[in-house]
Design a protein that fits this description.
It contains seven helices and six strands; from the N terminus they run H-E-H-E-H-H-E-H-H-E-H-E-E. Strands 1, 2, 3, 4, 5 and 6 form a six-stranded antiparallel β-sheet that branches. The structure holds flavin mononucleotide.
């Protein structure tokens, strides 16, 4: 498979949430997805449980149905106090601009959701809400590194991804569309995957950089 040959540092700093620069009309070779998944299952898991499951959705009718579900969730999300737009209120100008750009980009993805050629749904056995405290954190954290590895491997192969969770507002409905036994399996995210238009992506601006959010030795 052709890879971009990015350095590890370039890969880690330029793997963005790609929404507007997606080639909806270019098919994605299933072998590319399989290759990225091989990297996903190299990730760590608590107790070496390896309890990850991945559902790859390419079927047009199912993607259309997921698009309809996602758009309904988007309508609700747009008005929420945790939305990207709401987080712009009262923020410094640069941060507010960034938040509004995220909102515009996310609205574009919502409009075109059904056109995304591959949707990857990372799943876990059981219902995530059933485990208290450490159990839920460890179980959930068992799928997050693997999914991020998938996204990094995808970027290296010219594919753009975006971690989305909005369809989970209607998770049970999505489970029906995908024949997932809802009471036995939790969906954790929906990763959109498509070839990107161009492969040049830049590091993001993070307010204050890592120093602004890092403490050493004690909280105070
Ligand atoms: C847990 C999680 C949930 C997210 N949910 C969505 C989503 O439902 N829709 C969406 O368009 N982006 C979603 N995102 C992507 C974020 O908006 C994105 O990571 C953020 O704006 C920073 O952009 P960047 O990833 O390009 O740096 C999600 C990201 C994470 C980690």
């Amino acid at each position: 498979m052709t890879t971009l040959g990015l350095s590890a540092d370039e890969l880690l700093s330029t793997t963005r949430s790609v929404r507007k620069r997606l080639d909806f009309d270019r098919p994605v070779d299933p072998a590319l997805i399989e290759e990225c998944l091989e990297f996903a299952v190299q990730a760590p898991t608590g107790s070496n449980s390896q309890s990850w499951q991945f559902l790859v959705v390419t079927d047009e009718d199912r993607r259309q149905a997921l698009g309809d579900i996602y758009r309904r969730g988007w309508e609700a999300y747009s008005g929420m106090s945790a939305s990207a737009a709401a987080l712009a209120v009262g923020a410094a100008e640069d941060r507010a601009d960034q938040q509004m750009r995220v909102m515009g980009s996310a609205a574009y993805l919502a409009e075109n959701f059904h056109r995304v050629p591959v949707m990857l749904i990372p799943c876990l056995p059981g219902r995530v809400e059933q485990w208290p405290g450490m159990g839920s954190v460890s179980t959930l954290a068992g799928i997050i590194p693997s999914t991020w590895s998938f996204m990094l491997a995808a970027r290296e192969r010219g594919l753009g991804t975006c971690w989305t969770t909005i369809h989970l507002m209607f998770e049970e409905e999505a489970a029906e569309v995908l024949a997932i036994p809802y009471s036995e399996v939790s969906q954790v995210a929906l990763i959109t995957v498509a070839h990107t238009l161009g492969t040049d992506f830049r590091p993001a601006t993070r307010a204050g950089g890592a120093a602004a959010v890092t403490r050493w030795n004690a909280w105070d």
